[in-house]
Amino acid sequence: MTKTGKIDIKSLLLNELQGDVRDLAEPSYRAGQITDWLYKKRVDSIGKMTDLPQSLRERFAEKFSFSKIDVVRVLGSRDTTRKFLFRLSDANLIESVLIPASAALYGEKSDRRTICISTQVGCAYGCKFCASGLEGFSRNLRANEIIDQIIAIERVSGEKIDNIVFMGMGEPLANFENVMRAIRIVNAPWGLGIGARHITLSTSGLAPQIKKLADEPLQIRLAVSLHGATDEVRNQIMPINRKYNIETLLSACDYYAERKKQRLTFEYILIAGVNDSDEQAHLLAQHARRLFAKVNLIPYNAVEDLEWSRPSRSRQEKFLSILRAHKIPATLRREKGHDIDAACGQLRLQTSRNERRQVTTS
Ligand code: SAH
Ligand code: SF4
To answer: 70-358 architecture in CATH?
Structure first.
């Protein structure tokens, strides 16, 4: 729903559109024409859907809104990671990141063009190392605002996106219904047509919602931000752990793993002196074995105003070698420039903060 009280047309599933066209005494194939205009031809208004009868266009335009998000800034260049700052219809700002095919994503070379998208304005979970949580939570994004990030980036960059990671600002499982709706549209052949295996959702560990996700038929990939192998360590950096401790989280992951065919991934940021000990590595290996999970190690990336730092290269390598000695599939991000790190969970870096200030005051 928008301020006008109208639902946005890009939040609707094909069967809902079919219901709406039938309510207007039109044949249901009209709904397919509408989704073609939205997701294949990419028009920017209902009025431009020229093969629909004029009366239908008018009635739809009265009933539904049609969102666009404004691109306020693009940082970065074609061969590197590009960061997009968007203004939503209520003036809130969000960011998404386009990661080129040549870049290594989570330690693995990818031949796909990936975008890292936001699901909320801000984040309520307040992880101590994360820029998105610093300014608190404003609101959930609606499904169309999630879809619009992808459509706008494809339009501006001229590139076809074929991999989506929900690792931008916000906690996707705290905005469950809108995120699921957006994923259905992204995945559907009538929508953006991106395979479920090329959609990854990252969560800080909302145990009940992980179970709920396990019961959904979609085969998307799940990444769990663990960042600590004991409650003692995790409590220090992730307030969510006081609500759902490691055992509660891991048993939700067990439930997920039993129902889904793919492996889940543990994300583990390495923070010097906090979670990078040998003991944590051995315990992390046990958790990964229990769940048949992969581990992505991510050296902590500095955030303005925060005190944490990344361990030395040799400590990072030692941590990795312990996991590997336990035969756990594990990767460590090693690339220079931290381009990719800027992509995910870090969308309020210094540059963008300054940008934000300018944008909000201009
Ligand atoms: N809220 C979800 C998804 C967004 S955060 C989650 O927490 O999983 C996406 C990822 O970026 C998470 O693994 C998060 O822990 C990581 N991240 C956040 N701040 C970071 C930092 N400063 N350096 C490296 N990774 C960071
Ligand atoms: Fe929110 Fe994820 Fe950042 Fe934690 S890491 S504050 S859950 S966006």
So the answer is: Alpha-Beta Barrel (3.20)
